[in-house]
Amino acid sequence: MGQKTIRIIGIPIDLGQNQRGVDMGPAALRYAGLADRLKRLGYQVQDAGNILVPVRDTVDRQALGFVPAISQVCNALYFAASQAISDGAIPVFLGGDHSIAIGTVGGVTATEDCGLIWIDAHGDFNTLDSSPSGNVHGMPLASLLGEGPPELISVGRNGAKISPENVVLIGLRDLDLAEKKRLLHSGMQLFSMRDIDEQGMGQIAVSALETMAHCPRIHVSLDVDALDPHDAPGVGTPVPGGLTYREAQLLMEIIADSQRLSSLDIVEINPILDQRNRTAEIAIELVASLFGKSIL
């Protein structure tokens, strides 16, 4: 483990949603000591800086809103992600809003399939037709499965980037009506908060890993709003009734035990809404567990 290299890549983007502030998420995570935490676990850590993101107020929105600008950012991110995998590094992507996953998941699947564990209060499975808000941070998973604006589906390479049978969603509790119907017919494995309440996180995590037993690598896309706002108040779209800190830790620990983690997104931290950077600090503790920190 000591020889493995983690490459940190920041994407300070807030173009995918209306709530301003998530563009400061990468800085909050760095300030909270992400690199040092990972070094203490025995990893070599490279910080590759940030992907260039247009300033929101300078973007010409026209008919497609921020879609072209998001596509531009995600194309650059796609190639940074694929290069990290090619170099044998484990990329850790710091968002920004969840639209970054169009580039990150696309890039890490450039040469071979990868399982995707999507930890989120929301389904992120809307298209421009189904979305009540039109916000792209609610569409990345649909885009990755090949549904949505051509500008997003064509990021990096044309078409779907991942198969539904390779995707598991955990923590769902806030879905739009049309999105709910789409999810139920998607072919992905879905675990809502009710499922977690009834089955327990341990069983959910084991089921998720069994679903992607055929995948040699796993990408985790962690939207911090999956946690309950009591534990993680500084998020772009808080929803009551989320994962407890301990449930989230257990999930990370069980994924770590699989020894298949190959890449990670951390998204939707909003320092403006936070309390003394508490949410970023909690996210770093979850990342530490994902990368091998154990109780004993």
How would you describe this structure to a colleague?
- Helix content is 35%, strand content 16%.
- With 296 residues, the chain is α/β, with parallel strands linked by helices.
- The protein has a single domain (5-290), classed as 3-Layer(aba) Sandwich (Arginase, Chain A).
- The chain has an 8-stranded parallel sheet, with helices on both faces.
- The longest helix is centred in the first third of the chain and has 20 residues, at 67-86.
- It is globular, with a radius of gyration of 17 Å.
What is the share of helical residues?
Answer: 25-40%
> Which series of helices and strands comes N to C?
EHHEHEHEHHEHEHHEHEH
Largest sheet: 8 strands, parallel
Low-pLDDT stretches are none
Cα-based radius of gyration, to the nearest Å:
17 Å
Q: What is the third-level CATH name, the topology?
A: Arginase, Chain A
Shape, principal axes of CA atoms: globular
CATH architecture: 3-Layer(aba) Sandwich
List the domain count as a whole number. Answer: 1
Instruction: Enumerate how many helices there are, as a single number.
Output: 11
Give the strand tally.
8
Oligomer: single chain
Which class of secondary structure composition applies to the elements?
A: alpha/beta
**Mean residue pLDDT:** 95
Name the CATH superfamily classification: Ureohydrolase domain
Approximately what portion of the residues adopt beta-strand conformation? Answer: 15-25%
Roughly how many Å apart are the termini?
17 Å
Widest sheet: strand ordering: 2-1-3-8-7-4-5-6
CATH class: Alpha Beta
